[in-house]
Amino acid sequence: MLKKLSNLFLIICFLILVTSCKGKNTLLFLNWGEYIDEDLITEFENEYNCTVVMDLADSNEAFYSKVSSGTTVYDVVSPSDYMVIKMRRNDLLSKIDFSKLTNYNKDNLQVGVKGIISKMNEKEQNIDNYFVPYLWGTWGIMYSTKKEGLREAVINNKNEWASLFDRSSLPDNTKLAMYDSNQHAYYAACKYLGLDNNVELEKEDLDKIYNLIKNVNYNARGTDDLKKKIAAENLDIGFMWTGDFLYYYCERIAEVAYNAYKENSNINLAEMIKSLVDNDTYTFNNKTYQIGFDMFIPDDTIAFCDNLVITKKAAHKDLAHKFIDYMCQAKSAYKNAYYVVYNTPFTNVYDEIVALNNSSIDEIDQDLLYDIAIGYGYNKYYPKNVDNANGYKGDILAPFDRKYINKINAIFNNARF
Prior knowledge:
With about 425 residues, the protein is an alpha/beta fold. The protein has helices spanning about 5-20, 40-50, 60-70, 80-90, 110-125, 150-155, 160-165, 180-195, 205-215, 225-230, 240-265, 270-280, 315-330, 330-340, 345-355, 365-380, 400-415, and strands spanning about 25-30, 50-55, 75, 130-145, 175-180, 220, 235-240, 280-285, 285-290, 295, 305-310.
């Protein structure tokens, strides 16, 4: 979700676009980097004879800062659950007029999304009047399957978070990384220490987190580069969004299967892909093929739902509703979820993506193999029916106020590794 882009370059480009579109029917959209199939923007522009100018931010806190400053009046923004609550509490959002959303059907939402919405309503009454779910998912622990003993250390530990904080539980010389987001690292540390991540902690508990982080001695902290480094065997384990992992995972499966087919056209590709997903390896004619990395998602992980909201001061609210409705169309939602590889909020779209694992293998190409892999991947890492009251793994982040967020940031910055 977080993409390394030059902030100065983006700001300059955005200001040029906004200035050049002045007087036109223009939608200002604030989004995460590489978090939409941009063909959909072009299609929307053509259908509604308008211009969409998309600006990017790399965190929910940046979303809040950009919207609250009022320097640019955005129409549509895509904040996560806890940030929607914070924005609403500070009167930064407009109510959604659901009568204008002909493609949005709350009954079509996945059970897990309904669970997150219910949790959000517990934290802020009637918050569901201010957003439409966009994409959602979980956080997980990506790890190398080639590092001997690492899989067992990650998934068999009594404490599901130990592999991120207890080096004694890991094989020697394990290269360990933490995601460079203080709030997400804070959540994981709370879970490991058995602290309540939904309330503001006293100094004694905050000191425990500080000492924990300071003594772990991480090999790296990063964002989307972590998955690349684990896939390239330059790191062994790291904490990240499931969607970030899943794209690389499906790409690797397609690559391994396609190269195996070029070596021996008698190989059963459907069987091979299923085995790679289930076991990380597949053996044919005494040769073993392997993905090389996998993900473990703790039961009490971080869950999130990113949403589309309309700002209080939006200048193009009617067009904003049209844009949100366009993204709720089954065709658009499918195309977007397939491209981004984060979970769709819509049940029918989810079912369509999972069904890709039954694609007929008539003409062999890597894109087709990727389709099959993504069908299996969605089914495995975005399970449709989670056996708990919420219908999804984990919990969403708490909407802490600025003062407490500053405390969290100070802990992690001072214990910087």
